[in-house]
Task: inverse folding
């Protein structure tokens, strides 16, 4: 195992005069990191690829979260917002993604101390130490970071003393192919493939009404889309819904009786009911290998229970989950788990082969550290390919990381996390994550 350097070393200058801490992404976790840095008096800059804060959440804005408001607001951000007269929405109600942006992320981003530090429309396309590729070791920890950025056609660079990568995973979905490589034949069917969480009952209704849709994937995003399609099928004759999964059954969604997040448990029960009513047809044990176009139909070809199989449909929704974009971090020394692509110390706590629920031991800067002193991946991206990230976990991550950046090792080390029980255990092993 690599020995980590636990001492924060300012790359250059003091906390206000040197280069700022760079935060990649203005989602809920990037903005919470910003609020924590304001409280710590450390200068920072937030680089956001989208045109506005919460750009990824806006993409699924029509979808209701399963957590109620009381689990969705970062404690430091809440304090700063309340000081300006902001009132929290009903703590027991779960908002939609759009409401999360409107009632929380936007007001937070408008606070003077944060607004002046956010740059939207700037995509980070690479991170390195200034003048050093990943092989150069001498004086590495004291050398500032450089973030290569793109704004339209213009490429630029931003210097930083430390980097907090909170860029999420929403922009990099998994492949439909069961081997994880790009799906063979994808280009032929690309126009018939929708990304996860399409607005089936709203803006994209015409795409699905009166047609056969196949939702691929076994998680909550798949469940949300299946239920919307089942509702559509009641109103629009000819609408057919198929749920195609690789496993024999989708325990993560359907056996959720122990889930403290009531809305999420209800989601599973509603899917069960729609299957029992015949509104959703299930094709399980299907491993997709390639796709092809047959006139105006899409054919997914693969193996089902060891036999060659074909599935015919009009539209495919890719709800197979997301993976972290590690390409921008090629020049950064990372210590990632081989399976989960999460930091090696965090991975055993969230590996979906062992844990299928969102309950996780409290963790902070130690679990999130990489051999690159001053570089952290936080939020959804810190979970790599594990699908169980919850915002409350990310808020505690950034509290610990920013305390460490401020040199407050005591606060950074004292991590506490109270999460709702999310006993949605597909392994059946209730002694690990769900006990
Ligand atoms: C449908 C759905 C429902 C969910 N419901 C819940 C729930 O109920 N409770 C809960 O706790 N969690 C929930 N989650 C999980 C998780 O909390 C959210 O995905 C949350 O948005 C993650 O926050 P984040 O800040 O880590 O990432 P994101 O919200 O994805 O934000 C990342 C930001 O980084 C930007 N970005 C990406 N790449 C770059 C780049 N290269 N350069 C610059 N900017 C970049 C993006 O534009 C985006 O604004 C849900 C997720 C989904 C998809």
Result:
């Amino acid at each position: 195992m690599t020995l980590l350097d636990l001492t924060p070393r300012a790359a250059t200058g003091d906390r206000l005069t040197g280069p700022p801490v760079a935060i990649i992404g203005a989602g809920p976790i990037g903005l919470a990191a910003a609020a924590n840095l304001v409280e710590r008096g450390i200068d920072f800059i937030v680089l956001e690829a989208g045109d506005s804060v919460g750009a990824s959440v806006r993409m699924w804005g029509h979808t209701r979260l399963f957590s109620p408001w009381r689990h969705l607001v970062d404690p430091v951000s809440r304090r700063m917002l309340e000081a300006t007269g902001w009132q929290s929405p009903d703590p027991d109600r779960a908002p939609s993604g759009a409401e999360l942006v409107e009632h929380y992320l936007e007001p937070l981003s408008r606070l003077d101390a944060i607004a002046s530090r956010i740059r939207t429309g700037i995509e980070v396309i690479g991170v390195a130490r200034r003048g050093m590729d990943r092989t150069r070791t001498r004086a590495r920890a004291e050398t500032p970071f450089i973030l290569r950025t793109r704004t339209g056609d213009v490429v630029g660079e931003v210097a930083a003393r430390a980097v907090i990568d909170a860029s999420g995973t929403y922009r990099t979905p998994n492949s439909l192919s069961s081997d994880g490589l790009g799906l063979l034949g994808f280009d032929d069917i690309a126009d018939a493939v929708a990304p996860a969480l399409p607005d089936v009952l709203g803006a994209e209704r015409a795409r699905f009404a009166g047609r056969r849709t196949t939702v691929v994937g076994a998680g909550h995003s798949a469940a949300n889309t299946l239920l919307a399609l089942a509702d559509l099928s009641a109103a629009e004759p000819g609408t057919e819904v198929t749920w195609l999964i690789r496993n024999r059954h989708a325990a993560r969604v359907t056996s959720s009786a122990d889930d403290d997040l009531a809305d999420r448990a209800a989601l599973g029960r509603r899917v069960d009911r729609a299957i029992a009513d015949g509104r959703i047809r299930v094709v399980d044990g299907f491993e997709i290998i390639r796709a092809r176009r047959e006139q105006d139909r899409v054919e997914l070809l693969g193996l089902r229970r060891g036999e060659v199989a074909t599935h015919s449909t009009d539209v495919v929704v890719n709800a197979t989950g997301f993976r972290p974009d590690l390409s921008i971090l090629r020049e950064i020394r990372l210590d990632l788990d081989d399976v989960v692509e999460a930091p090696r110390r965090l991975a055993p706590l969230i590996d979906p082969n062992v844990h299928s629920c969102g309950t996780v031991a409290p963790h902070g800067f130690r679990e999130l550290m990489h051999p690159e002193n001053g570089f952290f991946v936080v939020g959804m991206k810190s979970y790599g390919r594990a699908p169980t990230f919850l915002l409350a976990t990310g808020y505690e991550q950034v509290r610990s990381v920013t305390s460490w950046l401020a040199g407050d090792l005591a606060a950074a080390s004292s991590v506490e996390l109270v999460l709702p029980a999310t006993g949605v255990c597909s392994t059946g092993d209730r002694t690990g994550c769900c006990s």
